[in-house]
Every structure is written in C-alpha cells, then in structure tokens.
Design brief:
Layout lengths: L10 H7 L8 E5 L2 E7 L5 E7 L6
Antiparallel strand pairs: 1-2, 2-3
Length: 57
C-alpha cells in the first residue's frame, strides 16, 4: 500500500474484524483508548484504536 492511499471502513466491518471489540483481540490500552487486532474478510490483519469518550479526539 502506498503511503498516500486512504483506507475507510464502516463500523460494521470493524466490528466484524475485531469480533465486536472482543477482549481476546485487545492488544493494549493507552490514554486515548484501547487498541484491538482484527482481520478483514480478505485476510488482511489490522489494528483498530477505539477512542475513549474522554479522549478529546
């Protein structure tokens, strides 16, 4: 993938990829929210940051 390429996913696709943000897929948590691993339907692995309500982002 080129650095200028932009990826966009809808929430349903992200929920499916992360098994609805399953704790089993949780990689860690920081000040802005948790990070989850996921797998798209084509097998591509992704990391998704789920921002906390208090993140300010």
């Amino acid at each position: 993938m080129r650095s200028e390429d932009s990826l966009q996913f809808d929430l349903n696709m992200i929920r499916t990829a992360t098994n609805n943000f399953s704790d089993a897929n949780k990689l860690g948590e920081g000040g802005f929210g948790a990070v989850y691993k996921g797998e798209l339907l084509d097998g591509q692995e992704i990391a998704v940051k789920r921002l906390s309500k208090n993140s300010g982002q």
